[in-house]
Amino acid sequence: IDEYDKEIKLFEIIGDNIVIADAIISIDKINEILNIEIPEDGFETLGGFIFDLLGRVPKKGEKIKYQNCQMIIEQVVKNRIRRVKIIKELPQTENNIPDKDV
Questions:
Q1: How many alpha carbons lie under 13 Å from residue 69 in its C-beta half-sphere?
Q2: Of 58, 66, 74, 77, which has the highest C-beta tally within 10 A?
Q3: Where do the Transporter-associated domain residues begin and end (predicted)?
């Protein structure tokens, strides 16, 4: 156990390509967890990114689409984003289609 394990749990992986994250998690960390590329221009946290993207504080339950991710606002407290569910959408490929020859 290192010092990071004792910190507040910033994210929880709840399924394949689905994470619930605290809005203070770094963009760098969320990019690493989901293997995505959210830009870090002018903000360091997931909450800062969402606020910058929308230009306002989102409401609970609001859905934001960014590239191949859907972000669902799970919690807002006193005009601050607290928790966000991020779902990374996988591209549709021919492998998803059942093989007719089987």
A1: 22
A2: 58
A3: 12-90
Residue 88 corresponds to which amino acid? K
Reading the block at residue 52, the tokens are 């910058």
Q: How far apart are CA 38 and CA 27, in angstroms?
A: 7
* Number of domains comprising the chain: 1
Residue closest to 90 by CA, chosen among 16, 14, 13, 12: 16
**pLDDT over 70 at 98, yes or no:** no
Q: Is there a domain that residue 100 lies in?
A: no
Is residue 86 within 8 A of residue 73, CB to CB? The reply is no
Q: 10 Å Cβ neighbour count for 14? A: 10
Give the pair of three-digit tokens for residue 54: 């929308």
